[in-house]
């Protein structure tokens, strides 16, 4: 009812603007929207976008020149005030960063867990219903050893262990993934990498989906794919580092808004990057600056190695822009079909395939078991809906994915995404690599299972589907998917 009122107000406001209504009339409409928004906040809480500071017809302000990097970075993290970027005050964050409700853990970890959830270090409880002692170091270490090795690892459960809560997902996963190659680069590499991981973790924002846990999860899946396809055999340790650090930081500083939104609102980031892969350019820039800012760490690389690390970070992160999805898939497909692809002897061909690997990892929740796929999908659409709420308040047109009132269309939209984006990508990976059996057995199997489940849940909302998982007390056993 109230959402319908807001939609009506927006339509009236748009009509008045088109007809050249006076400033007093437009101010009155803004006041009415504020009144409705206040009512929504009282009744719907954190699902409503704050509008006190939103000025629908104002352009984004310029960022002052000669700012120190820290201040400059903070100015660019969303390039707008936190309240305009989907960031919530402490009492509001929990509803958006934890789509599966309050955490229920043992050993008095609850208070800490709730606090770290607000940093985007978890998305809620695991839906596998296993009995887990989140304070147990033994259980934690058992799962940590599977990072980068087990595609079906319960990432959500791992993120809620006390040790991961204390250190954060980027640091926890990053250490696990980098330790083996760090020792091969320099004896002090792993020690000196700690500030790097902490800085990357710190610039992630507490978005429902594009948060630090997403960065850690993508890095984990990217390494599983690399290991399963045995691509690391053709890479140096420094190149492996570039691949992992790009995966960890591929969404660093993400404001929880899309490139299209930043362009439409004339966001400073859009002006800096000329409307082209805005966020991806920003993420890559942050990663490279963080690496360059630590002199003791930077000293581990020769000039040529650093240039190569930076080149690969930029190549990989820019490839995560979904607008260029088919370009990257077709780059590999064309070379494969004409017989010129030789990733074992041609380093540029190898990196074309590494691009597909990080892209598969970036949308990898689509290839997870259903009970893990749904929490991530719900988090993603909550982030979309927060943007859609703001677009509605700004009198901007809404796309299907961003309209909270059309959430029953999500299952059918997932079918289209599966057929148009996810399957062509992983099928190309299988076609180019002779070691694709692992991808078929686990990754594609999960994807087809999810496809059938989406068909069963056609026209149901994500909340309804998630509620079924939450209410089920059945322990869901998932086969380990260990890559050699």
From TrEMBL:
The active site is at residue 210. One of its GO terms (biological process) is signal transduction. AMP binds at residues 210-214, 251, 362, 414. Residues 130-461 form the PDEase domain. Zn(2+) 1 binds at residues 214, 250-251, 362. Keywords: Hydrolase, Metal-binding. The keyword Cytoplasm does not apply. GO terms for molecular function: 3',5'-cyclic-nucleotide phosphodiesterase activity; metal ion binding. Zn(2+) 2 binds at residue 251. It comes from the Eukaryota. Gene3D superfamilies: 3'5'-cyclic nucleotide phosphodiesterase, catalytic domain. InterPro entries: HD/PDEase_dom, PDEase, PDEase_catalytic_dom, PDEase_catalytic_dom_sf. Coiled coil: none annotated. The keyword Zinc does not apply. This is 3'5'-cyclic nucleotide phosphodiesterase.
């Amino acid at each position: 009812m109230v959402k319908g009122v807001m939609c009506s107000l927006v339509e009236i406001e748009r009509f008045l603007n088109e007809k050249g209504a006076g400033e007093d009339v437009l101010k009155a409409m803004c006041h009415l929207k504020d009144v409705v928004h206040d009512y929504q906040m009282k009744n719907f809480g954190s699902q409503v976008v704050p509008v006190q500071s939103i000025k629908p017809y104002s352009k984004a302000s310029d960022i002052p020149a000669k700012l120190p990097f820290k201040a400059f970075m903070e100015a660019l993290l969303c390039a707008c005030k936190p309240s305009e970027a989907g960031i919530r005050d402490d009492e509001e964050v929990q509803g958006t960063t934890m789509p599966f409700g309050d955490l229920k853990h043992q050993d008095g970890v609850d208070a800490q867990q709730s606090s770290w959830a607000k940093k985007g270090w978890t998305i809620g409880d695991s839906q596998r219903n296993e009995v887990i002692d989140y304070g147990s170091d033994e259980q934690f270490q058992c799962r940590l050893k599977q990072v980068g090795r087990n595609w079906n690892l319960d990432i959500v459960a791992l993120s809620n262990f006390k040790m991961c809560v204390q250190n954060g997902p980027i640091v926890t996963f990053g250490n696990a993934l980098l330790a083996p190659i760090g020792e091969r680069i320099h004896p002090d590499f792993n020690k000196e990498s700690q500030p790097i991981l902490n800085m990357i973790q710190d610039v992630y924002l507490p978005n429902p989906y594009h948060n630090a846990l997403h960065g850690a999860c993508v890095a984990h899946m990217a390494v599983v794919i690399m290991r399963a396809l045995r691509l690391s055999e053709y890479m140096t340790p420094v190149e492996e580092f570039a691949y992992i650090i790009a995966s960890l930081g591929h969404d660093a500083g993400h404001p929880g808004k899309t490139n299209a939104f930043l362009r439409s609102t004339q966001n400073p980031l859009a002006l800096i990057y000329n409307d082209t892969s805005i966020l991806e350019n920003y993420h890559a820039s942050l990663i490279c600056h963080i690496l360059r800012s630590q002199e003791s760490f930077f000293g581990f690389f020769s000039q040529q190695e650093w240039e190569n690390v930076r080149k690969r970070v930029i190549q990989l992160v820019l490839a995560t822009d979904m607008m260029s999805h088919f370009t990257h898939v077709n780059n590999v497909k064309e070379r494969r079909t004409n017989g010129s692809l030789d990733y074992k002897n041609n380093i540029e061909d190898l990196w074309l395939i590494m691009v597909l690997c990080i892209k598969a990892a970036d949308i990898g929740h689509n290839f997870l078991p259903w009970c893990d796929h749904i929490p991530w999908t719900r988090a993603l659409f909550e982030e979309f809906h927060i943007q859609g709420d703001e677009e509605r308040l700004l009198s901007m047109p809404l796309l299907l994915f961003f309209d909270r009132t059309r959430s029953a269309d999500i299952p059918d939209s997932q079918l289209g995404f599966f057929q148009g984006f996810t399957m062509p990508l992983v099928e190309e990976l299988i076609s180019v690599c002779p070691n694709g059996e692992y991808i078929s057995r686990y990754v594609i199997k999960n994807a087809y299972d999810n496809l059938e489940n989406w068909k069963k849940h056609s026209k149901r909302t994500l909340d309804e589907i998630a509620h079924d998982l939450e209410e089920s007390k059945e322990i869901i056993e998932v086969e380990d998917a260990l890559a050699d």
